[in-house]
Amino acid sequence: MNSRELLKWAMAELGSDKRLEAELLLCHVLDTNRALLMAHDTDELAEEKAEAFRELILRRKADEPLQYLIGTASFMGLELLVTPAVLIPRFDTERLVEKALQLIETKEAPIMLDVCTGSGAIALALQHYKPKASVYAGDLSGEALNIAAQNNQRCGLQVQFRQGNLLEPFADLTGRLDLLASNPPYITTQEMGELPGDVLQEPRLALWGGEDGLYFYRKITAAAVTMLKPGGWLIYEIGWMQGEAVQKLLDGAGFVKTEIIKDWQGLDRVVCGQKSE
Asked: Could you tell me which of 41, 55, 49, 59 has the C-alpha nearest to residue 5?
């Protein structure tokens, strides 16, 4: 069987709108790229390769996320390992990193912390684009931190990871942070029951943010007041309906210059604020 025949079969299983995913899975199995795949789509394939591809297609049909099947996800130019132990990095989260880098662009060697780091995506991107920075990151999940540590080594970076609940492992950084970033769990109880099947296969620990989705924003904001140095910045990724609520939390905690930043679809995606000088 050749690639053309396998992709035709995959379309029948997944639907024609999933052709790109099928091509990416076949490229993964064959260790090739899409250009070469298309140029040689009539070449006969080894049966073990065809069978491996069929297995992946059936797993995708059962809502297993594409990135878990491939084992990697791209984020800010970095190719990161992902497993079911971590949330899959999203393109929307790049808005947080871009804004964070703008906020600290005048500081040559800032001290930054990423809470609820998961795969390490935010922390690793900050370290990559701000190489003289001291970047710390934490997560409650030891499994997630294992993946983050592998990504740290894979990307040749020096992010310092610590396991524990939110800011508890970072007491030594109290009053020293130039920037505190987080993409915490923010899905509400109601929304959890409405998520697509593939999202529900991601770790619940990284998704559920309490009844109203704001539990972790309250906890982190309260602690950030003492963790940040005067003039330091707090920045969050948020759910698209949470902008005003999270901005009010920052305003209520005494942060100034609070702002809601939209994603590329025009939806509220990031909230930030500065600790008073």
From this structure: 41
